[in-house]
Amino acid sequence: MRSYYLLLFFFTFLTLTGFFFANKVTAQDVSTGFAISINVPDNDFQNGDLICASNNSFIKCNVPYDTSLYGVVTTTPASSIRVETQESPVLILDSGLARVRVTNIGGPITNGSFVTTSEKAGLGQLATKSGYVIGVSIDEFNSENPDEVGEVVVALNIHPARISSARSNLIEILRQGFSAPLFDPLASLRYFLAATIVLASFAIGFVYFGRVATKGVEAIGRNPLASRMIQFAVLIQVLIMIAVFLIGLGLAYLVLIL
After folding, report:
1. I need a surface site. Which of 18, 51, 201, 219 has the fewest CB within 10 A?
2. 112: which residues sit within 8 A by CB, 6+ positions away?
């Protein structure tokens, strides 16, 4: 009986110890996914730096929403392939989970936020508009010090993300339309429909105004005594034309942001 209790205590101790160390390892080694090694002669990269391709080499990303985004540096991947002939290998992840070094110059990063490159070399930031992103943060970072560097865990998925906000103005949204072919076909279709609506409303208003102006001048020439009534009627028609154009702009805006 005594040996039974000793054995039970021993297994309980092993279970609790294993649980404790498993949690400890998980907290330290967050990276998951398959890493590949790249050769970088001037290797000054840190764990969590964002890497971009540049002239047959690799550098720390230093342009916001950089389309040459390649991956994130990791020192603790779940699995990796290393090339023995590489003189200065660096392990890169482009999928899975990884810690990414970030700054708050784009705003506070919350759970579910898109993370993209920034003007600070190797650091990520909150993505506030459409463009290339490294993935989605499953962590949070917020600091009042713009020079402070933090880390967030990111679910890596390098792709051009479409980010719309009701606070965006129409000019900014139309500017983003030039990059629509980079996005998914649905986003491209939305920009095409919005442009079609704007052009159609402008064409209708322009043709309508021409007809109204021509008929108004002819009516005044035939009946000068009723010129005021005719002018008033023309003014009403012009206001209707402006309303049609504004409604077209409003519909285009709704197509873009919804």
Report:
1. 18
2. 136, 137, 138
Name the packing angle between helices 185-222 and 227-257 (round to 10°). 180
d(CA 244, CA 117): 42
Distance CA 196, CA 190 (A): 10
- Residue 203 has a CB neighbour count (10 Å cut-off) of 12
**Look-up of token digits 């200065």:** 88
Q: What is the pLDDT of residues 185-207, one digit of tens each?
A: 566 677 778 788 888 888 877 77
Domain ranges of the chain: 30-163, 185-257
Hey, what CATH topology would domain 30-163 get?
Virus Head Decoration Protein; Chain: A, (2.40.300)
pLDDT of residue 131: 84
Q: Which of 182, 178, 181, 195 is nearest to 256 (CA)?
A: 195
What sign for the dihedral angle of Cα 109, 114, 118, 121?
A: positive
- Residues 165/157, Cβ–Cβ less than 8 Å: no
Helix H or strand E encompassing 217: helix 185-222
174-189: average pLDDT: 55
